[in-house]
Amino acid sequence: MKALTIKELKQELSIRSAKELLELCLRLSKFKKENKELLTYLLFESSDEALYIDSVKKEIDQQFNQINKKTYYLMKKSIRKILLNTKKYIRYSQKKETEVELLIYFCLKLKNLSPPIHKNTKLQKLYNTQVEAIRRKITTLHEDLQYDYGIELDSLQ
Questions:
Q1: Torsion-angle region of residue 94: left (phi > 0), alpha (psi -120 to 50) or beta?
Q2: How is the chain split into domains, by residue range?
Protein backbone atom coordinates (compact mmCIF):
# COMPACT_ATOMS: atom_id res chain seq x y z
CA MET A 1 0.00 0.00 0.00
CA LYS A 2 1.39 3.35 -1.05
CA ALA A 3 1.00 6.32 1.32
CA LEU A 4 -0.62 9.40 -0.14
CA THR A 5 0.88 12.88 -0.05
CA ILE A 6 0.05 15.36 2.69
CA LYS A 7 -1.93 17.45 0.21
CA GLU A 8 -4.12 14.51 -0.76
CA LEU A 9 -4.67 13.55 2.88
CA LYS A 10 -5.55 17.14 3.75
CA GLN A 11 -8.15 17.28 0.95
CA GLU A 12 -9.72 14.03 2.10
CA LEU A 13 -9.79 15.10 5.75
CA SER A 14 -11.43 18.42 4.87
CA ILE A 15 -14.52 16.65 3.52
CA ARG A 16 -14.95 14.39 6.57
CA SER A 17 -17.39 15.16 9.39
CA ALA A 18 -16.28 15.97 12.93
CA LYS A 19 -17.44 12.56 14.14
CA GLU A 20 -15.45 10.78 11.44
CA LEU A 21 -12.34 12.84 12.28
CA LEU A 22 -12.71 11.93 15.93
CA GLU A 23 -12.91 8.23 15.08
CA LEU A 24 -9.88 8.50 12.77
CA CYS A 25 -7.79 10.22 15.45
CA LEU A 26 -8.71 7.63 18.07
CA ARG A 27 -7.95 4.79 15.70
CA LEU A 28 -4.62 6.36 14.76
CA SER A 29 -3.70 6.75 18.43
CA LYS A 30 -4.12 3.01 18.99
CA PHE A 31 -1.36 2.01 16.60
CA LYS A 32 1.76 3.68 17.92
CA LYS A 33 2.81 5.05 21.25
CA GLU A 34 4.24 8.13 19.50
CA ASN A 35 0.87 8.91 17.92
CA LYS A 36 -0.74 8.78 21.36
CA GLU A 37 2.02 10.96 22.84
CA LEU A 38 1.64 13.52 20.06
CA LEU A 39 -2.12 13.62 20.49
CA THR A 40 -1.66 14.06 24.25
CA TYR A 41 0.71 16.97 23.64
CA LEU A 42 -1.62 18.63 21.14
CA LEU A 43 -4.72 18.29 23.30
CA PHE A 44 -3.39 18.88 26.80
CA GLU A 45 0.14 20.26 26.89
CA SER A 46 0.50 22.61 23.92
CA SER A 47 -1.40 25.37 25.72
CA ASP A 48 1.26 25.60 28.46
CA GLU A 49 4.68 25.21 26.86
CA ALA A 50 6.60 26.01 30.07
CA LEU A 51 4.88 23.16 31.91
CA TYR A 52 5.62 20.85 28.97
CA ILE A 53 9.31 21.82 29.02
CA ASP A 54 9.46 21.18 32.77
CA SER A 55 7.90 17.73 32.39
CA VAL A 56 10.38 16.82 29.64
CA LYS A 57 13.27 18.06 31.81
CA LYS A 58 12.08 15.86 34.67
CA GLU A 59 12.01 12.89 32.31
CA ILE A 60 15.54 13.73 31.11
CA ASP A 61 16.65 13.83 34.76
CA GLN A 62 15.15 10.40 35.40
CA GLN A 63 16.82 8.95 32.33
CA PHE A 64 20.21 10.40 33.28
CA ASN A 65 19.84 8.91 36.78
CA GLN A 66 19.30 5.47 35.25
CA ILE A 67 22.40 5.49 33.04
CA ASN A 68 24.59 2.43 33.37
CA LYS A 69 28.01 3.92 34.16
CA LYS A 70 30.04 0.71 34.21
CA THR A 71 31.62 1.37 30.81
CA TYR A 72 31.67 4.25 28.35
CA TYR A 73 30.07 1.99 25.76
CA LEU A 74 26.98 1.46 27.92
CA MET A 75 26.92 5.14 28.83
CA LYS A 76 27.02 6.09 25.15
CA LYS A 77 24.09 3.82 24.34
CA SER A 78 22.01 5.29 27.15
CA ILE A 79 22.91 8.87 26.25
CA ARG A 80 21.97 8.32 22.61
CA LYS A 81 18.60 6.96 23.73
CA ILE A 82 18.04 10.01 25.93
CA LEU A 83 18.92 12.30 23.03
CA LEU A 84 16.56 10.38 20.74
CA ASN A 85 13.71 10.80 23.24
CA THR A 86 14.53 14.48 23.70
CA LYS A 87 14.40 15.08 19.96
CA LYS A 88 11.08 13.23 19.79
CA TYR A 89 9.61 15.64 22.33
CA ILE A 90 11.08 18.55 20.40
CA ARG A 91 9.32 17.31 17.24
CA TYR A 92 6.01 17.28 19.09
CA SER A 93 6.38 20.93 20.04
CA GLN A 94 7.89 22.25 16.78
CA LYS A 95 8.90 25.46 18.56
CA LYS A 96 12.47 26.65 18.20
CA GLU A 97 12.60 28.05 21.74
CA THR A 98 11.58 24.68 23.16
CA GLU A 99 14.17 22.93 21.02
CA VAL A 100 16.97 25.22 22.17
CA GLU A 101 15.97 25.04 25.82
CA LEU A 102 15.72 21.24 25.87
CA LEU A 103 18.98 20.73 23.99
CA ILE A 104 20.78 23.14 26.33
CA TYR A 105 19.40 21.21 29.29
CA PHE A 106 20.48 17.90 27.74
CA CYS A 107 24.01 19.23 27.14
CA LEU A 108 24.19 20.62 30.68
CA LYS A 109 23.26 17.22 32.13
CA LEU A 110 25.76 15.53 29.80
CA LYS A 111 28.54 17.94 30.74
CA ASN A 112 27.98 17.38 34.48
CA LEU A 113 27.80 13.62 34.12
CA SER A 114 30.19 11.51 36.14
CA PRO A 115 32.45 9.89 34.95
CA PRO A 116 33.30 12.84 32.70
CA ILE A 117 32.54 12.58 29.01
CA HIS A 118 35.74 14.35 27.92
CA LYS A 119 37.61 11.08 28.52
CA ASN A 120 35.67 9.42 25.69
CA THR A 121 36.04 10.83 22.18
CA LYS A 122 32.65 9.61 20.92
CA LEU A 123 30.74 11.14 23.83
CA GLN A 124 32.73 14.35 23.48
CA LYS A 125 31.92 14.47 19.77
CA LEU A 126 28.22 13.90 20.47
CA TYR A 127 28.33 16.75 22.98
CA ASN A 128 30.14 19.09 20.56
CA THR A 129 27.66 18.25 17.78
CA GLN A 130 24.73 19.17 20.00
CA VAL A 131 26.37 22.42 21.12
CA GLU A 132 26.95 23.34 17.48
CA ALA A 133 23.32 22.50 16.63
CA ILE A 134 22.17 24.75 19.47
CA ARG A 135 24.39 27.55 18.17
CA ARG A 136 22.81 27.27 14.70
CA LYS A 137 19.27 27.22 16.14
CA ILE A 138 19.90 30.25 18.31
CA THR A 139 20.68 32.39 15.26
CA THR A 140 17.10 31.87 13.99
CA LEU A 141 15.50 33.22 17.19
CA HIS A 142 14.54 36.77 18.21
CA GLU A 143 17.45 38.99 19.31
CA ASP A 144 16.47 39.00 23.00
CA LEU A 145 16.22 35.22 23.03
CA GLN A 146 19.51 34.96 21.14
CA TYR A 147 21.21 36.93 23.91
CA ASP A 148 19.62 34.92 26.74
CA TYR A 149 20.30 31.54 25.18
CA GLY A 150 23.75 32.70 24.08
CA ILE A 151 24.67 33.24 27.73
CA GLU A 152 23.45 29.75 28.61
CA LEU A 153 25.36 28.30 25.65
CA ASP A 154 28.56 30.04 26.76
CA SER A 155 28.21 28.39 30.17
CA LEU A 156 28.31 24.99 28.44
CA GLN A 157 31.79 25.59 27.08
A1: left
A2: 17-47, 48-156
